[in-house]
Design goal:
This protein is of the alpha/beta class. It folds into two domains: 365 residues, TIM Barrel; 104 residues, Immunoglobulin-like (Sandwich). The strands form five sheets. It has an eight-stranded parallel beta sheet with strand order 4-13-12-11-10-9-8-5. The longest helix is centred in the first third of the chain and has 16 residues. The protein starts with 7 loop residues before the first helix and ends with a strand.
Length: 481
């Protein structure tokens, strides 16, 4: 169902009030993390497949209520230069694939029929006010719930079927531009007149959303596909930065760097968040930590529908020093905005109420710590584990030690011979601790409960901790009293 929209007077009053708030920013004490609503912030999310605004059948208020209920504080959404056909990536009930006539974007419809997915073609010189009202209301509702929105401006066209649906394709607009191949759309010199169109869209969106504090812009999703050039990405970053000028309300800019991992070379100075997809193991955090910016893992998936591996990916990434994590959650669809859609096993990823509860627990758990003053230090812990398992630590030296152990398996049915070592309590950890009184607790990350607690005095040096039996993963927190 389509959401009802507030009056323009209500929005004006809201914008006036929100202009007094500081937008999402890098944390001044540790720019590897964020600052939001006056507090150090770690974004942990599990969101729908990016169609919450452009899909008119998606009830985003119900969706945002669900995220807030589950203790999550982030979501991604697409601006509308890109959408998908229902067959894309074998995603059942794909929110990024609106039904015929139910797609909306920044560009207004013309009076000429012929858009590939129903309705009139687009006029790339005119704006759809209904779209901007919907986008602003989405951000307003997210702000009320403490949720940060990543607005992704562009996405490459992986296949012809996606390019055939874009308003930028000359067959879908009345402006005589976009007669180019899908691999030339995001270039500076082969774009068939689309660069000026893209610049105008970015300028309009950034200008329209200048008052929102719960927002950052991502230049382009997965620009390492479909011919997107680095020069074009830097150009769009410049357009965003130039549009906002030197105002104190400038929004952060994100650049999606790679799937899995890569080392960022010659970063654009306006980019503050460097996002990766499927970043497990999270080696990319360490290799890019020297940038002094937020390193994020903002899409998971393509490893089956078993939720446990996506929970492990989150814990692993955050304990490695990451500042942002977003799971791609296929239990959200139009009609199931409460995240209860039972998807087929052919879905490329997971997502469930139980998994979101586990993510909410992770967020709350980390927030109890002075995480701004913690950093990854795997040398602080010693353990002998098989090659298919890992141990890492996030520490505030002399004060807090969070150790995370994961198997990396995610489905014991496939590896029955590997389960016994962990389930039978045959693993120990060795931590180097100063002389002090400490409290320790073991956390079951699946059930979201503490399974063991202890207190001890320590004379300094190494201390051995016996790991309770577990299946997928477990965490140890040692804190100075």
């Amino acid at each position: 169902m389509k959401n009802s929209l507030p009056s323009s007077s209500f929005l004006a009053a809201l914008f006036a009030a929100s202009s007094q708030a500081s937008p999402l920013a890098l944390n001044p004490d540790n720019p590897h993390y964020l600052q939001f609503q006056g507090k150090p912030t770690l974004i942990i999310a599990s969101g729908e497949h990016y169609g919450s605004v452009l899909n008119l059948d998606f009830n985003y208020t119900r969706y945002l209520d669900t995220l807030a209920r589950d203790g999550l504080n982030g979501t991604r959404t697409w601006a509308g230069a890109y959408c998908e056909p229902p067959s894309a990536f074998n995603i059942a009930h794909n929110t990024l694939a609106p039904l015929a006539g139910r797609f909306i974007c920044a560009w207004a419809r013309s009076d000429q029929p012929g858009y590939a997915n129903g309705g009139n073609k687009f006029d790339l010189n005119k704006w759809d006010r209904g779209y901007f009202e919907r986008l602003k209301d989405f951000l307003t509702q997210a702000s009320k719930r403490g949720i940060v929105v990543e607005l992704n401006l562009f996405c490459p066209f992986y296949e012809e079927s996606m390019w055939e649906l874009s308003p930028m394709n000359s067959r879908n607009n009345i402006n005589g531009v976009g007669t180019v191949s899908r691999t030339n759309v995001y270039t500076l010199d082969k774009n068939g007149g689309l660069l000026a169109v893209q610049d105008k869209m970015v300028l309009q969106i950034v200008s329209e959303l200048k008052e929102f504090e719960n927002l950052y812009f991502e230049i382009c999703n997965e620009p390492y596909f479909g011919g997107v050039t680095l020069e074009w990405q830097h150009h769009i970053a410049n357009v965003i930065a130039r549009t906002e000028g030197n105002s104190t309300g400038r929004h952060l800019i994100s650049q999606n760097i790679a799937n899995y991992q890569a080392k960022v070379e010659n970063p654009h100075p306006a980019v503050s968040i460097f996002n990766f997809h499927y970043a497990t193991p999270p080696d990319t955090v360490a290799s890019n930590y020297g940038l002094g910016k937020v390193i994020g893992d903002n899409e998971t998936g393509f490893r089956g529908t078993n939720d446990s591996q996506y929970r492990m990916e989150a814990w692993d990434f955050i304990v490695a020093g990451g500042g942002l994590f977003n799971n791609l959650d296929y239990s959200f669809t139009a009609g199931h905005e409460d995240g209860t859609f039972v998807y087929p096993e052919t879905q490329p990823g997971g997502g469930s109420t139980a998994l979101r509860h586990q993510y909410g627990f992770l967020k709350k758990f980390i927030e109890q710590l002075d995480f701004i003053h913690m950093h990854a230090d795997n040398d602080a812990v010693k353990a002998e584990v098989p090659s298919w398992a890992s141990v890492r630590a996030l520490v505030k030296p002399g004060q807090d030690y969070l150790v995370y152990v994961r198997t990396g398996l995610g489905d014991w049915k496939k590896y029955p011979d590997r389960r016994s070592k962990f389930a039978a309590n045959e693993l120990s950890l060795q931590l180097a601790l100063p002389a002090a009184e400490f409290a320790a607790e073991w956390i079951d990350t699946t059930k979201c409960v503490t399974v063991e607690k202890s207190q001890f005095g320590h004379a300094g040096g190494s201390r051995i901790f016996s790991v309770p039996g577990f299946e997928d993963d477990i965490a140890l927190l040692v804190r100075k009293k």
